[in-house]
Amino acid sequence: GGILYPQDSEFRQTKSLDGIWKFRTEPKGAQDLGIGQSWFNQTLEQTGESELMAVPSSYQDLSQDRERMNYLGWAWYQTEFWVPVEWNDFARRILIRFGSVHYNAMVWVNGIKVIEHQGGHLPFQAELPSNQVYFDKPNIVTVAVNNTLTADTVPQGFLTYKTGEKYPPNHFIMNSNFDFFNYAGIHRSVVLYTTPRSYIDDITVTTDASGTTGSVAYAIEVVTEGAPTVSVALHDKDGVIAAQGSAATGTLQVPNAKLWWPYTMVSNSSDAGYLYTLEVRLRDDSSDIEDIYRLKIGIRSIRWTDTSFTINGRPFYFAGFGRHEDFFIRGRGFDPVLLVKDHNLIKWVGANSYRTTHYPYSEELMDVADQLGIVIIDECPAVSLTLFGPGLLETHKNELTRLIKRDKNRASVVMWSVANEPRTEDPNSENYFREIFQHTRSLDASRPITIVLDSNYATDHAAQFTDILSLNRYHAWYQDQGELEMIGTALTAEAQHWMDTFKKPMIVTEYGADTIAGLHTSPSWLFTEEFQEEYMREHFKVFDNLRTNSSVTFIGEMIWNFADFMTKQEIRRVVGNKKGIFTRDRQPKASAHLLRTRYHLLANEYYGYQI
Ligand code: E9O
Which of 420, 474, 491, 579 to mutate to test the pocket of ligand 1 (most atoms within 8 A of CB)? Predict the structure, then answer.
């Protein structure tokens, strides 16, 4: 089935379950105690322990208990909710939907399990049969969330038991190769919503543009008992109908279409991110049930070749970031305040794009990118993969399927990233990624697909499948530390090798240096603001060279990272990764001003506008 975002309409209603829930963890070493004792059949108070928890939020940073940061296992959430009595109607379905829960989840409503789900970053939902819902007293929803990662989850994690006289009994940790804190909990909104019994289940839209004519190819999936009639109407921002269709599939031609443009490519940023509304109507003639769903879509074309990447026929140069969903206290929990602030900062810097490193970001965030005209490289949660077993492949393919199902209609998404920094020197990665790319292409042929590599061009096994080369490089940081003078030689030579070998357009998707805000030295030294700026200037020289060098197609630069973010504890990290050009509380380091100057110049040079 589809996973359309819940919305209110003439025939649909939503009800938020966000707020303060009850919460508890299990005693250390008592794995699965809650399931064993059927906590889903009791209130959490009755289980002997319960505290307050905000939903949505990660649960780690809210506690004063140090062990909470390291907690591994099931964490239990519970709340009560009322279902409006008018929802007690055979012509209506009632669903509960989670924007994301990290990582494994089980959900019970009134003691009955309604869904089990794996995967930490994508929405899932369950229908609640009306005979399992109370309309005359509160219902109880219990969610158990497990943050334990394995060799077959994306990302991967590896439980390690430490034994011997050095360690207390039952001492274990989870190792992982990725460089961000494994925040967990109910990370995005929980919504109760209804659809009619006959309903619009999924919508797929692919747009194109040639000259001033736009086209919108659409396919509507419906679930009905009888004979359905489906129609679509495309409304512009003023509500004027721009095109109409009277079948479940078809292509709408839109003369004089207002195209979706990135905000740096239009003279007035209020013209950016133009969205039409595709109004889809369903009438089930046998039951007389109607449904309406309104989807915002942007009309634009994406084209790529071995030597070019264009949006609406114009070359696009990615000037952007790698990012994280990360903030104090709420961890990776959805925060509309942070969402707005971050996008104001992104526009202040003049960035036209970012990659959703290293997992799908919230649907609310994707809406913002769509409407502001910010370009997204949409990444699936496969970060730092190793081992490449069949279980991992299955999980990975499943995540890609679901990511594309969720984000396929988004104008902002111009490229899929299937993985970040997998161990592609491993020969086993070759067949693995052949299959991953085939799978992704079979799901969406309208966008290029990339894989973000930190490998060596001579020993890499996956770059051969990519449409766009994406490279992460840390010259003078992780190797040759502080030797700024080698950045130019190393990166230039390397870019040329990758281009000669694979003949694809290339983006540097990461480069960066940890920088403690307020730490200064002259001359520059690792970790100081001066060093970060000089390190960037060296990269800018290389990028400018590559941009203007006709033997490479260099189409973008993305600095690591937009802001400082939390990681696990390790001696390379002083309370997190400090490669942000903004601090974790979103204040600029000197580097933010430097990047702002550059991104404004680039926008002006490429598209001629002062942003
Ligand atoms: C992935 C990102 O999540 N790329 C990393 C970023 C970092 O700051 C991380 O936060 O560490 C860089 C990968 C560097 C690989 C080179 C390692 C060489 C070791 C000698």
Answer: 474
